[in-house]
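For anyone still unconvinced, we reproduce a single protein record, the chain in one-letter code, the fold tokenised, and leave readers to judge:
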Amino acid sequence: MKVLKHITFFLTILFLSYFPKVYAEELPKVYISGDLSEMTSKKDVRQVELDYQSNTLSFHAFAEMKIQGHSSTAYIKKNYKIELYQDSTYENKKKIDVGYGNQSNYVLKANWIDKTHARNIVTARIMANIQKQSGLFKDTPNYGLIDGFPVEIYLNDEFLGLYTWNIPKSDWMFNIKEENKDALVISGDDNLTYSTIESWDSPVWKVEVGEESDKSLKQFNRLLDFIVNSSNEEFKNNIDNYLNLDALINYYVMCEFAFLNDNVGKNILLVTYDGKLWYPSLYDLDTSFGVDFLGQNLLPDYKSLIISYSENNNMPLFDKLIASFPNQIADRYFALRKKILTKENVLGEFTSFENGIPLSTFALENERWENIPGFDITQIDAFLTERIPALDKYMASLYTKKASASITYKKNKDGSVTATFVPSREDITITNNQGLSTYTFNEVGTFTFEYQDALGNKKTIEAEVDFWKHIALVPFIIGVTLIVVAAIAIFILLNSNMKKHSKKVAPPEKLVLERRKNIGSKKKRKKNK
């Protein structure tokens, strides 16, 4: 049965990976008129005209364009930042809603190292679902992550390439308002360290949103000092004053799951809205799921960890997180593994995105750009097949609390009793009862739940139902007490009334004497008359 299941799943992916592309809806087309040749510096700004055409939106704008990225600036196919303007004076910005609200600045992403064009956006969408589940970045376009959609770009009427039209690394990505002077978005660059910095000329940290000022430098150094100099105990006790724990755990879990090696040594965004509490957020995700930073090679070992805990604090932020909150990390990981971080869900997200790109567009891309780096979705499938079981075991090994369970009971209106299995850890799964965590008793009896943890340790716990144990004793006792009290009150009341209204009855012999006395009195009165 397992072999048949795997074959069916493979054929489904194969079908969904090919046939929908033939009939995929035509992509939006972006026509650029201007000179983009020999752009190598981010300071090189070109002024162009731009026409956007899709089935639902068309507009004309003037635009300023410059290349975007870090190492990607050296690629032959460039990424571009675009700022839209109303006219040729390039003074008044033009805000257009392409699906994220009215905005004037966007990114055209070349996705050069990923021929699927999906890794960056799909990985961000998976992470966005995680942030959504944790209630983070709720008022942002994609829960603090980039998002985008595929477009065809034409430069001076010639096909330039398949791109994605993306949310930029900007204030509106995090819904930061201009009037909020405490808000900051700081990005970490190559060779990431957490030592305090003397100025914003630091080669490690850069202000993406907010002001480069003494105030913002002090606010950020406060965070760095806490990360580097706090003990594990201090980190655990005081983290809520510096970092959002849910956001940090989510960041770490996703880095390990998708092997985001590039987002540990660089590409971390640290976001604050008040200058005190910081939220880590992922950015630049095109090396996700097992490829190197050039997109040309696969990582040698899909099972290895990105962050191996060590007490020498070579990565103090994550080392202290693992040392201080192992149970929370493991519970979060296994909670996500139930739905969001499953192989089926991840592959489904990638397949859905890629199916939105017509085969004709991929053909144009391959003709325009030869030897495009990257690997297809079958590589992601192979990566997940190896990595998930290995990561399951590692995350389970983090637990310091024992794998156990308890039973709660609830009496239903129809008189039945429902027993609910309550695990102590998120990695625990029920292996009988069709995996259900509840069992309903219609009569007195027992039921044994069988369960195991992610390391394969098996245990059982018995649910037992009898009348006196599960009859809802509190309401029962209250009811009986009320009845007894009412009966006593009625008895006292009746007894009191009987004493009040009843006549005293004399003994029989006394009644006879009184009667004779009364008769004698009557005869005497007659004689006297």
User: Anything to note?
Assistant: DSSP finds 13 helices and 19 strands in the chain. The CA atoms of residues 166 and 409 lie 51 Å apart.
